[in-house]
Amino acid sequence: MEPKRRRAARILLLDAQDRILLFRASDPAVPEVTWWFTPGGGLEPGESVRDAAVRELAEETGLRGVELGPVVAHGTASFSFRGQRYDQEQWFHLARTAETALDHSGMGTDEHAELLAARWWTIEELRTTAETVYPVGLADFLELLVTEGPPVTPVRL
C-alpha cells in the first residue's frame, strides 16, 4: 500500500514550570500499543504551518492566546494508523502558556475517542519513563530549548 503524504504542525507547549504537554493515544487497529505525542495535526488545504498550529492547539486543548513562538524543529515521521500508512512532514513550534487546565471539547469525535490521556511532563520524567514518547529524543531537545532558547535555524528531529 502506498503511504499517504501529509504535512503537519506540532506544538511543543511548555507551561510556567517548563513542563511539556503530551497526549497519550493508540491506534484503534492496534489498541494495546500506546504512545505519548505532542499536540498538533495535519494542515488543511491552503493553511500555513503557523495557522495550523494555532487551530490545532485551540481544538485539542481549548487554550486560546497561547504565546506561539518560532518553528524550532522539523522532521518526518512514517507511521500506520487505522491500517493506512502515512509519511508525514512535520514542523514543531515552541509555545508557552500560563494556563494548564485543558478543554478537549473542540476535538473531533474520532480524535477525542483516540485520546487516552493528557499530561504535563517534566524533562526528568521524560528521561526516565519506559513509555514510548514521540518525537524520539524529546527530553534532550527540550533541555536545550529551556537552557539555551530556540535555535537560530530549526533542527532536524
In total, how many beta strands? 8
- Poorly predicted tracts of residues: none
Assess the beta-strand content as a share of residues.
Answer: 35-45%
Largest sheet: 5 strands, mixed
| Radius of gyration from CA coordinates | 15 Å
Mean model confidence by pLDDT: 92
Shape: globular
Helical residue percent band: 10-25%
Structural class: alpha/beta
Strand sequence of the main sheet, in spatial order? 4-1-6-5-8
Distance between the termini: 26 Å
What string, H for helix and E for strand, traces the elements in order? EEEEHEEHEHHE
Discrete helix count = 4
Task: Give an overview in words.
It contains 4 helices and 8 strands, in the order E-E-E-E-H-E-E-H-E-H-H-E. It has 157 residues and is of the alpha/beta class. A 5-stranded mixed beta sheet has the order 4-1-6-5-8, covered by helices on one side. The protein has a 3-stranded antiparallel beta sheet with strand order 3-2-7. A hairpin with a 2-residue loop joins strand 2 and strand 3. The radius of gyration is 15 Å and the shape is globular. It starts with a strand and ends with a strand.
Which helices and strands occur, and which strands form pairs?
Elements: E1 4-14, E2 20-27, E3 30-37, E4 40-42, H1 49-61, E5 67-81, E6 84-96, H2 109-114, E7 115-121, H3 123-128, H4 138-148, E8 155-156
Parallel strand pairs: 1-6, 5-8
Antiparallel strand pairs: 1-4, 2-3, 2-7, 5-6
What's this model, at a glance?
The protein has 157 residues and is an alpha/beta fold. It is built from four helices and eight strands; from the N terminus they run E-E-E-E-H-E-E-H-E-H-H-E.
